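Technical note accompanying the year-one report. For the benefit of new consortium partners, we illustrate the data format agreed upon in the data management plan: each record pairs a sequence with a structure-token string. No post-processing was applied to the example shown here.
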Amino acid sequence: MSAIAAPQHRSSKTESYVDNKRKEDIRHANIVAARSVANAVRTSLGPKGMDKMISTSSDEVIITNDGATILNKMQVLQPAAKMLVELSKSQDSAAGDGSTTVVVIAGALHEQCLLLLSHGIHPTVVSEPLHKAAVKAVDVLTAMAVPVELSDRDSLVKSASTSLNSKVVSQYSTLLAPLAVDAVLSVVDAPKPDMVDLRDVKIVKKLGGTVDDTELVKGLVFDKKVSHAAGGPTRMENAKIAVIQFQISPPKTDIEQSIVVSDYSQMDRILKEERSYILSMIKKIKATGCNVLLIQKSILRDAVTDLSLHYLAKAKILVIKDVERDEIEFITKTLNCLPIANIEHFRTEKLGYADLVEEFSLGDGKIVKITGIKEMGKTTTVLVRGSNQLVLDEAERSLHDALCVVRCLVAKRFLIAGGGAPEIELSRQLGAWAKVLHGMEGYCVRAFAEALEVIPYTLAENAGLNPIAIVTELRNRHAQGEINAGINVRKGQITNILEENVVQPLLVSTSAITLATECVRMILKIDDIVTVR
């Protein structure tokens, strides 16, 4: 009896077996999914990157090489891969540019982490040094950066050009880059010089012409025509403009009901009442000296009827109807006027003043321009032209990225070299730092340093160069102290990239490394996926 009990007593002292296979499998699946997302956009990195044609379920076709747009349109199902899509969105909102770079760096870090995990290193042990390496990387980048002043327009234009050079519309960068710089600088508010709200720059797209016809308009542009009913004016000098949110049409009952008219005299009375009601409204409007009406789109009933348009035309008032509700704030800020919600509140002090309101024929449609606005708010409008819808949409996306780059420089006034120079310098300095560190930390930091080489490698690969030869040469040049040596994809060789005017804001690089590291650390620590139905 005692002989049988003895083994039981001994086995309780020994360690029980724990199955870690599932945890490893899930971690491996997450990393592989994230890497495949990164590989999907990797070919579109840099000025020689390829474009993607995306066909959506609604038969919409998009041609772009903007990382955020590509990932946004991809239907990703794996939860860890979705995190990379969110990562790209975060970079897009934080810096505006570098949405492809951040995903490619995250993919390379995942690859290095997989290698470390396969050697039996615990995920937590890998995670902590990655954070330290990211903090050190930001310090190294800040030390490399060159300060820039907002008065130095050339530097801002160079930075915006670098962003545009990797886009489909890169051949128009000489036009769009200065335009983006002027647009952002015109909305910088003196009391808050570090803050730029890009909602103050309105982009209006109009089909027809080429991207060369894109222009910056100091004023307002409406992608709609003036109401021509009853022969109203289409041009107005010394305009007094009112933005109204009420309807110039007969009132309706609040509840759904029908009114039965039994004879002609009652019908005449109704029509007469309607006419006098509309006429009294228009008289009140005319009494203030208003000669241009911007009417907000109405959901409940017609904002204007044919009858009211007829009376407005008689009163020589120019009418632009169906103004979208979300445009009202921008319009009132630009015109420096107040929206009027009720006819009883229609007063002269609520009007905006401009030198000219005019309708123009453009392409296959018409637009309305308001120029020479008195005491104009800190806003501006960009009228983007394009020969087809695909070019138009891509021009808008590219211009948005260029605007974001200039916004980054307003927020953090430092420039850094492009062309893979900062990444290879980081790789070199972090590699040297890894030798000083002890134990696992050194291994993990070295892996982080190696992962950063993916950017120059990919730039060379996409430009049709020999990536191994280029990256080796780049390492040598940086080891000799040429910290601004980078890949010149146009010449197919390594040059001082600052002298070639390939520059980008410091915020784009620091944000990409910080966000990519955060994302990788989060995915590393996931050891199970629980599905709740």
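Partners are asked to follow this layout when depositing records. DSSP finds 17 helices and 17 strands in the chain.
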